[in-house]
Design a protein that fits this description.
With 245 residues, the chain is α+β, with helices and mostly antiparallel strands. It is 20% helix and 35% strand. A hairpin with a 3-residue loop joins strand 10 and strand 11. This is VOC family protein.
C-alpha cells in the first residue's frame, strides 16, 4: 500500500484571501503553483510528509454549487489557548456558527467564505497533532466506510465504534482522520475534500485501480483533462488521487 492522505482542498471564491486567513490561523507558509491556486504548509516542510496534512485552495467561479461533507478541527493546549484562538479568529474575519451543536465545550465557527470548522477544547488525544487536530468526514456508517479507507490509505485505525472511526498515520504523527456518524439532516456541507497521493507518484494508475477494486467509482465534477483522478468512496464522498502535474 503506497497511498497517503496529503492535503485537504478548499474551493474558494478568492483563494489568495482565504489562503491568507488560514495561513494566519495555522502559522503556516503560503505559496502558489499557478494562478487561482494557493498552497499552505508548515514553514520548512518537505511535502509530502505525514506530520502535516496540508491545505490547497483552488479558485472556482461558483463555490456554492460544490458541496462536500468534510471539515477540519483545530487543536488547543489549554482553556486559555482556546479562548485566545477564538478571539484571534474573530479578528481575522471568522464568525461563530450555529449548526445545532447546542452547549458544547468546543466552538463552531465559519471562515470568511462560510466554511464551518471547530476549535476544540484541550484534549489529550490531540496534544501532538499540530494546529489541525482532525480532518472530519460526515458519514452514515463509520464501520462500513473505514473498511474502505482503512484499506485505501497507509493509516492505522485507532478507534472504531458505531459512531466514529479514527485513523492516523502509521508513523504516529500529524492529525487524525475521523469518520463521524451524522444524520442527513445534521450534515453541514462544506467546500472541502480530501486529496491522496501515491508514493511514488508514478503509481497513480495502479492505485486508482486498487481503489476501484475496494469500491471507489470514478466521478465527473467537470474537471476536464487534468493530472489528478476524481473518485467517490462507497458513500459518495468525492476525493482526488493526485498525479504529477
Amino acid at each position: 500500500m503506497t497511498l497517503q492522505l496529503v492535503q485537504v482542498n478548499f474551493k474558494a471564491r478568492d483563494d489568495s484571501a482565504l489562503g491568507r486567513f488560514w495561513a494566519e490561523v495555522l502559522g503556516w507558509g503560503v505559496s502558489s503553483e499557478g494562478p487561482g491556486v494557493t498552497n499552505l504548509e508548515p514553514v520548512g516542510f518537505d511535502w509530502p510528509d505525514p506530520s502535516a496534512v496540508c491545505i490547497d485552495l483552488v479558485r472556482v467561479p461558483d463555490p456554492e454549487t460544490v458541496k462536500y461533507r468534510v471539515h477540519i478541527e483545530l487543536a488547543t493546549t489549554s482553556d486559555a489557548h482556546q479562548a485566545e484562538l477564538v478571539a484571534r479568529l474573530k479578528e481575522l474575519g471568522a464568525k461563530p456558527a450555529d449548526v445545532g451543536q447546542g452547549d458544547t465545550p468546543w466552538t463552531v465557527m465559519a471562515d470568511p467564505e462560510g466554511n464551518v470548522f471547530s476549535v476544540l477544547e484541550p484534549r489529550e488525544l490531540y496534544q501532538d497533532t499540530g494546529p489541525i487536530a482532525a480532518v472530519v468526514v460526515a458519514c452514515a456508517d463509520p464501520r462500513a466506510l473505514v473498511r474502505f479507507w482503512g484499506e485505501a490509505i497507509d493509516w492505522t485505525v485507532h478507534e472504531l465504534t458505531d459512531d466514529r472511526a479514527l485513523l492516523r498515520s502509521v508513523k504516529g504523527v500529524g492529525p487524525y482522520l475521523e469518520f463521524r456518524r451524522t444524520p442527513d439532516d445534521e450534515v453541514v456541507w462544506n467546500r472541502v475534500h480530501l486529496d491522496v497521493m501515491s508514493d511514488p507518484v508514478e503509481d497513480q494508475a495502479r492505485e486508482v485501480a486498487r481503489l476501484q477494486s475496494l469500491g471507489a467509482v470514478r466521478a465527473d465534477v467537470g474537471q476536464g483533462d487534468v493530472s489528478w483522478v476524481v473518485l467517490a468512496d462507497p458513500e459518495g464522498n468525492e476525493f482526488c488521487v493526485l498525479g504529477r502535474g
